[in-house]
Design goal:
The protein is mainly alpha-helical. The protein has one domain (1-109). Helices cover 54% and strands 0% of the residues. It contains three helices and no strands. It has helices spanning 5-31, 33-47, 53-73. Helix 1 runs antiparallel to helix 3 and helix 2 (33-47) crosses helix 3. The longest helix is centred in the N-terminal third of the chain and has 27 residues, at 5-31. It is elongated and about 60 Å long. The structure holds zinc ion (ZN). Residues 77, 79-80, 82, 98, 100-101, 103 line the site of zinc ion.
Length: 117
């Protein structure tokens, strides 16, 4: 548990960087689903002649989206430690405040507004 304000701010920055990485990966997988599935299936079919790879690649890609989405949904708020994007019934990946303590996304400390020093 961070003790000084400096350590606490570093913990917040690390948490937001982790969140941005998870978020970027999720949106990339979602945006590239159709072209990525067809491209990967074409590459697999070219390298290993077979005709069943498109549905399989699509299912694996969807599983990857689900796995990354699950990890994003489990992102812990740096202030309260509860899940930032989901409450007990709903996952909202576009949320800008914590579902439990209303901490603003990208806040530099537990008390500051986003972008404030
Ligand atoms: Zn919170």
């Amino acid at each position: 548990m961070p003790e000084t304000i400096y350590e606490k701010n570093l913990a917040f920055e690390a948490a937001w960087r982790d969140l941005e990485r998870r978020s970027r990966m999720l949106w990339l997988l979602l945006a590239a689903y159709l072209p990525g599935t067809f491209l990967l299936a074409w590459v697999i079919n070219t390298l290993f002649p077979q005709h069943t790879s498109l549905p399989l690649v699509g299912i694996v890609w969807m599983a990857a989206i689900g796995w990354v989405g699950f990890h994003m949904a489990r992102f812990a708020c740096p202030r309260c430690g509860a899940t930032f994007f989901e409450n007990w019934y709903f996952f909202k990946p576009l949320r800008n405040t914590c579902a439990h303590c209303d901490l603003a996304r990208r806040a530099k400390s537990g008390d500051a507004a986003p972008g404030a020093d």
